[in-house]
């Protein structure tokens, strides 16, 4: 574990766990998600053209804490795996396969503590999968899996930590139309199909804006858990939605996006199929 990650882990144990024991606070799913994200960051491997991150996570909890999730335990692992995939995608990390999360009751873990073991695992045998690269997790989204059109999957392998994991179908992002006006007065409409739309001055973007104040790779519009999300990619001049500078924002019908001297207005065209 890198030194900074170890220091962060020390302070987490120093402050979070005693407080949880004192007030008998129940662990929340978001706490598990954050620990998974931190373990992904701590174990990442960077090369010249990509950053590879773990895709298997075993979350060790005290049996009492695990039992505290009650009826949601069966779906929690799938929800956490979806969150790990989304986290990797937003940071353009590379995964060799869709993340999987297993929850394990472990009496050696103290109450209110969370221990995450992250590892790199080859794709599950029998799947016709190519490595996911980046913008991470190429075409797989949290609400669909190419090997399971119905939305459910079961892990295999027979090891002691294998569990049955179900992916709960999520609403798809709405289809949308962006009405674009560029500085030269050109007006056009661009359709968003619910997956991803890249925006910038460079020719390899889905939406190319001939605007000197727009960065080469300025922003993305993506579908996330049934919503339409705008992401600024660290552009030089920033992005404004309805006059307010934003980094990430869920879009709605009628929102006005400003990039440099270019303008876009959002029109929802209906839900995806």
Description:
This protein has helices spanning 3-23, 29-42, 63-67, 73-90; strands spanning 45-46, 51-52, 56-61, 100-105, 115-119, 174-181, 187-192, 196-200, 207-208, 219-224, 227-232, 239-241, 244-246, 248-251, 256-259, 262-271. The longest helix has 21 residues, at 3-23. The strands form 4 sheets. It has a 6-stranded antiparallel β-sheet with strand order 7-6-16-15-12-13, with no helix packed on it. The chain contains 4 helices and 16 strands. It has 273 residues and is α+β, with helices and mostly antiparallel strands.
Shape: elongated
Structural class: alpha+beta
User: Got a strand count?
Assistant: 16
Oligomeric organization of the protein chains: single chain
Residues in helices, as a percent range: 10-25%
Q: Distance between termini?
A: 44 Å
Spatial strand sequence of the major β-sheet: 7-6-16-15-12-13
Helix and strand run: HHEEEHHEEEEEEEEEEEEE
**Main sheet?**
6 strands, antiparallel
Strand content: 25-35%
Rounded to an integer in angstroms, the radius of gyration calculated over CA atoms is: 21 Å
Low-confidence stretches: 1-5, 14-24, 126-170
pLDDT averaged residue by residue: 75
Helical stretch count?
4
Can you lay out the helices and strands and say which pair or pack?
Elements: H1 3-23, H2 29-42, E1 45-46, E2 51-52, E3 56-61, H3 63-67, H4 73-90, E4 100-105, E5 115-119, E6 174-181, E7 187-192, E8 196-200, E9 207-208, E10 219-224, E11 227-232, E12 239-241, E13 244-246, E14 248-251, E15 256-259, E16 262-271
């Amino acid at each position: 574990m890198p030194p900074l990650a170890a220091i962060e882990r020390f302070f987490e144990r120093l402050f979070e766990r005693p407080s949880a024991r004192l007030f008998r606070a129940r662990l929340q799913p978001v706490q598990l998600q954050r620990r998974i994200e931190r373990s992904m960051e701590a174990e990442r491997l960077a090369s010249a053209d990509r950053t590879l991150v773990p895709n298997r996570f075993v979350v060790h909890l005290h049996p009492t804490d695990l039992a505290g999730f009650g009826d949601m335990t069966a779906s929690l692992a799938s929800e956490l795996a979806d969150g790990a995939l989304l986290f990797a995608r937003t940071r353009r990390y590379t995964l060799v396969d869709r993340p999987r999360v297993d929850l394990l009751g472990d009496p050696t873990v103290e109450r209110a503590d969370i221990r995450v073991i992250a590892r790199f695992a080859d794709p599950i045998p029998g799947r016709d999968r190519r490595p996911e690269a980046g913008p991470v997790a190429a075409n797989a989204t949290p609400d669909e899996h190419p090997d399971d059109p119905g939305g459910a999957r079961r892990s295999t392998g027979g090891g002691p930590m294998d569990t049955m994991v179900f992916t709960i179908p999520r609403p798809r992002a709405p289809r949308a139309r962006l009405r674009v006006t560029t500085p030269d007065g050109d007006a056009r409409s661009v359709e968003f199909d619910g997956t991803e739309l890249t925006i910038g001055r460079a020719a390899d973007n889905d939406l190319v804006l001939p605007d000197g104040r727009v960065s080469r790779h300025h922003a993305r519009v993506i579908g996330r858990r049934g919503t339409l999300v705008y992401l600024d990619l660290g552009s030089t001049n920033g992005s404004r939605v309805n006059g307010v500078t934003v980094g990430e924002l869920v879009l709605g019908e009628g929102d006005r996006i400003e990039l440099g001297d270019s303008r876009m207005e959002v029109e929802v065209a209906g839900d995806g199929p």
